[in-house]
């Protein structure tokens, strides 16, 4: 096979199932973010009228995710390689580093997962007197997250192996809990939010924008998906290389150039086969699974808390749900909800640590000869330098947040989600430019896809405008 020939796509159901990878990693990130407590917190405060926003977000992000991975299929490189053709590459690298590092450095997920496991240990939600216990668990989980990212041939493959059981277990646990413990009327009420949409006037945009930004994945997810697609070896990504782990991996030459396939009848036939893999991963694994999960968690929240007149915020949503479900199903429900919540949130923490470290590594690796020379053509050196920096900053913030009461886990997670809106607003128009400027005409998307990408810009632009007006001018739309 020469360099201009596109590798054969997966064949049959088992072939596509084996090829799935990027979407399951992003599904794990999203289930532990918006679906577990950001979105349910919004529903319990404002009601099911906002459920329609979940459907819109899942559709728009599925479109962007699929389009970004198509670029990797075509030339082997992640989508940020294309962005660098639009200006100075190193400027793009610094811009994306800031847009992604700042929202993710807040260790809200480690703190939230520590709260869950401490609640399991104590048999109640931890209070101020239990902050040392929560801090110890949070530090241990942050360290464990770091350890996970050191093991495996490919870091991407390690994340797949860890995240598959997490996602499946969480869906099963939540499904059993909501089917057994929530009345049918709650299902109907929440479902009405899709056919009778609404939007509360004068609402708190900090809560709403955070919930919507992380559904299903959030800021920079398109770059994460395309990077995982390259490391998975999709399409021409098989000819470019990947980021290996320190323990179990070996030095791999990660190319900084594109390796596009030639436009031929055979390659176009293979391209269509790869598109099926992309669609399964983006539409079904990432978006549909997270949509089903957020629907179930919203039903559970609305059905259990609203009848009791409860409207908790942040991780207290999960704890109060566990208590309410225990009243219906018995003490085992407390364990089920918090155990599922722990794995959701913990998976999000180490997933975000990898995703941001890899996207920053990719950007500087592609943009700078000096970086590649400095690292001796071993991308692990730069990747782990970024990872250790992220870990150190997160550790300081974690100690300050829990030990000195700087902020609560929900506030940190919501701050990160809202800051991530900047990256989302930029990603959609950039994808349109990439599709029509750098893809051969035979590979360009349909008009419908382009319209949806344009709508994505408007959609996230509205929420970014709302949160900025509220934050900077005190105006609530």
TrEMBL record:
Q: What is the lineage of its organism?
A: Archaea, Thermoproteota
Signal sequence, renumbered to the chain: none
NCBIfam families cross-referenced by the UniProt entry = Nramp_1 (NF037982)
Keywords (alphabetical) are: Membrane, Transmembrane, Transmembrane helix
Q: Where are the transmembrane segments?
A: 20-43, 49-69, 90-112, 132-152, 164-185, 205-225, 280-305, 333-352, 382-406, 412-434, 446-469
Q: What protein name applies here?
A: Divalent metal cation transporter
